[in-house]
Amino acid sequence: MTRVFKQMQGGVRFGAAVRLSGRQLARLVAVFENPDPTRGPALGGRQAVSRIYLDGIGPVVVKHYRRGGLVARVIRQTYVNFGKPRSRHEFEQLERVRQLGVDAPEPVAYAFCGTLVYRAWLISREILGAQSLAQLSRTSIERTHRAMDALTRHVAVLVAHGIRHRDFHPGNVLVDSADRVFLIDFDKADRYRGSRATLAGKYVRRWNRAVEKHGLPPVLTERMAISARALPGERWPGTLSPR
Fold first, then answer.
1. Which fold does the domain 131-229 belong to in CATH?
2. pTM for the whole thing?
3. Domain span(s) for CATH 3.30.200 in the chain
4. Which listed residue (55, 103, 167, 190) is catalytic?
C-alpha cells in the first residue's frame, strides 16, 4: 500500500497520496463547505461530484458521499462511524485494484470530519473526455464492443482476486476519448468469501439487471457474454457458459 500522508485543515482530516500544501487543503475544504456538485442521470455514474482544478495536481473530481434510498429523505450527507470512513475505504480500494492492473481513477486524497457521525469526500484525478458506458452504448456500437472487451478483462481480474464491486453497472464504467475503460465507485466494494464462479455470476446478473431496468441497448449483455467466453481459463456461470 502506498504511503499515506495524514493532515488536517479546518477540522477536516485528510489522508493523501502526496503531502498537500496548506493552499491545496484550504481549497478543498472550501469546496466541501460550499459544494456546487454536478449530477448525472440515474445510471450516469457518480451522482454528486465537484470538478475543480487543484494547483500542483491538475483537474480533480471531488466526490461528495450522499445517501440514497429512503434513508436519504432523513439523513442525506452523514454516516455513523462504525470503522473506516467510506472515503478512506474507497481510496484504499482504488489503490488496490490499480495495483492489480484494473483501470480506475487515480486517488489523490480522502477526507472526513466528525466523530460519532461524519461527512466524507474523495478526491481523485479527473478522467478527461470520459463518458459512461451507458451513454456510449446509445451512440456507438463499435466503440461499445471495444469497451466491453476491455471491461470483461478488468472484471476477470477482480473475480480472480475475490473483489466484489457491489454497484457494477454501465453507469459506473467510464470510457475516455482513447477508448480506455475505467471502473468507478468502489466505496461499497468488499472481499467476497465464496467461490470465484459464484462471484462471476453475481457480476453478470447485476450487470444484466441494470441493462434491462434502464432500457439500455442489448449489445451490453450480448457483448458481456461473448467477451467473457473468450477469456482463457475463466469460468463464467449462468448465461456465460465455460469454454
1. Transferase(Phosphotransferase); domain 1 (1.10.510)
2. 0.87
3. 5-125
4. 167
